């Protein structure tokens, strides 16, 4: 155990977050996301039993978002014609607002199949047990600035 580090962040996950460099991307996926097939060239970390919001909150405590891009946080957009509700997106925006001065403006969307293509180039994919649909989120890492 470490002081100030959320207990949900495993040693394996902390190592990966630390290894990531500026502009590297991290996907936190819902339970339906094909993490293993998308992550053939990425590090896949299993976080079974956890949801995306609790992991997102813990990760953003230690993970700076990229300030050189307008949308360092991206959600998988709902397919046209799909009637799925996405209230979890509001939860994500509130969490991002806690850690980034841009608030909701830092959050964008990527069409579903483009999201899959982007995910294939991510540094790491965290596979969760999140049951909400369209609950996948991609973060782009920034730099740590001394305060």
TrEMBL record:
Alphabetized SUPFAM superfamilies for the sequence: RbsD-like
Gene Ontology MF annotations: D-ribose pyranase activity; fucose binding; L-fucose mutarotase activity
Pfam families: RbsD_FucU (PF05025)
Cited InterPro entries: RbsD-like_sf, RbsD/FucU_mutarotase, RbsD_FucU
Keywords tagged on the record: Isomerase
Reaction catalysed by this enzyme: beta-D-ribopyranose = beta-D-ribofuranose; alpha-L-fucose = beta-L-fucose
Positions in coiled-coil regions: none
One of the protein's GO biological processes: fucose metabolic process
Descriptive protein name: Fucose isomerase
